Amino acid sequence: MTGPKISLNKLGEYLTATPSRRKRIIQDQQDPKAFIAARYSDARSEIVQYLASGMVDDSSLASAAKRLRLDDSGTEFAYQDRLASAEAIENFLEASEQIELDDLVVVPVENSASESMQISGVSVSIRPDAYLKDPITGDIRGAIKLHFPKTTPLTELAAGYVGAATKVFLQQEKNSPVVDHRKCYVVDVSTQTVSSAPKSHVRKMNDIAAACEEIDARWRRGSG
Fold it and tell me: What predicted TM-score, i.e. pTM, was given to this entire model?
């Protein structure tokens, strides 16, 4: 059995979930469904590309959504996923004004990149969708993390945990001394909600550590 692991967005949900839902989350992390992991790949790619361009051409992103809606090729799953991605793109456009890049450069993170940190025995996959870097020094000032599933939107509290962990990850794992909590964005696409990391993260990180201790214990006894 592999060691305990969880994605950051799922950890945010875990921290605000019912006991039965917490059990289900761990079971899903132990036996992930490949088709679920692949969902919204078109939306993620198009949105990150739009961010990297400086968010200057909304029409290009709108056109991408239209193109996805018109493409009925492939399997039924692929078709439905393109429709879901198109809707996600349109939702993101509605929320995009809440993201202020200022003069920061958006640097996409490769899907294959392994960006994680250990918390109380659990490997937490942090991987942001993009880093926000100072154009002069190259220092990481913030990041953007997207959340897509409509069935499990991030609550305000859950998004706060995700933002706090993202900020700490940038400070500790990416060794950035100039992280701006206001530039650590968590975007819940389905609800068109954009949040930033809290200025003080100590309490939230304590909660996260306690949750990871619980995940570690349940994982090792088979989530029962």
Answer: 0.92
Which tens digit of pLDDT belongs to each residue from 111-165? 766 789 999 999 999 999 999 999 999 999 999 999 999 999 999 999 999 999 9
Structure tokens at 56: 């200057």
User: What is the spatial distance between Cα 152 and Cα 18, in angstroms, rounded to a whole number?
Assistant: 13
Q: Which amino acid is at 24?
A: R
Angle at 149 between CA 143 and CA 150, to 5 degrees: 125
CA distance 153 to 190: 7
Residue among 201, 211, 52 nearest 131 (CA): 52
Token readout for 49 is 């590309």
The pLDDT value recorded for residue 112 is 63
For 223, which DSSP code? T
CA 50 – CA 85 distance, rounded (Å)? 14
Q: Which residues of 156-182 are buried (b: 16+ CB within 10 A; e: fewer)?
A: eebbbbbbbbbbbbbeeebebeebbbe
**For residue 6, what are the β-bridge partners?**
124
Instruction: Characterize the bridge pairing of strands 184-188 and 193-196.
Output: antiparallel
